[in-house]
Amino acid sequence: MTSRRSPGRVALVTGGSRGIGADVATALAGAGHQVAIAYVRNQAAADQVAAATGCLALRADITEPTGVEALFGDVRAHFGSDVQILVNCAGLLADALVGEMTADQWRDVLDVNLTAPFLCGSRAAAGMAAARWGRIVNIGSAAGVLGSMGQANYAAAKAGLIGLTRSLARELAPTTTCNLVMPGPVDTGMIAHLSGKRRRQLADMIPCKRFGTVAEVAAAVAFLCSEEAAFITGAVLPVDGGMSMGH
Length: 247
What we know:
Blueprint: E1 10-14, H1 19-30, E2 34-39, H2 43-53, E3 56-59, H3 65-79, E4 85-88, H4 103-131, E5 134-139, H5 143-146, H6 152-172, E6 176-183, H7 196-204, H8 214-224, E7 236-239
Helix pairs in contact: 1-2, 1-8, 3-4, 4-6
InterPro entries: KR_dom, NAD(P)-bd_dom_sf, Sc_DH/Rdtase_CS, SDR, SDR_fam
Organism: Streptomyces kanamyceticus
Keywords: Oxidoreductase
């Protein structure tokens, strides 16, 4: 089969300064796209990704409509085009058992993991509809279908993200696709705090008996952003070594 290489599109990756987001930005830039990454605090890491990939690094608060509007305006001003590919990678953990979780912990995690994809997705949709082409990919988590002890806020946000993805897929078809990539445990900084014993326990829960890599997740995202994925929308694609089979 002949691959249909996409013309260079304008892509925005939130949370693109580290972890999965950084590898997604690298993969999209390697596919010929013009890529902007959004970050909140770690400018040094964002600048490093930008220097290595040729991406544009932009600081933005994507949990507020004004921050999202400014971010999309900056992308258009720099590239001369609206965002055509949106990948929502930004994530936040604030773990606690439900009985000990504060309202702020709940709210902060929902804001970053669910409200921000809603705001960015709704802002991107108009430009994609006008261009009659668009790709939105949300980064979910196996916690969104399995639950996760001590992470009720995170699991609830990722479960909500599945509903948001499928609703957007219905609303934006046929010109724009919206899909969700659902990683299991991935060897990133978000799990670096786990003890060796806990890491082994998690690995044993995965049929493939190992954690995933950011490159494996980024490859799935890059495919869903490609021309070849035009007939895939509303999908929840597990990249979890079989962890969520049956759910």
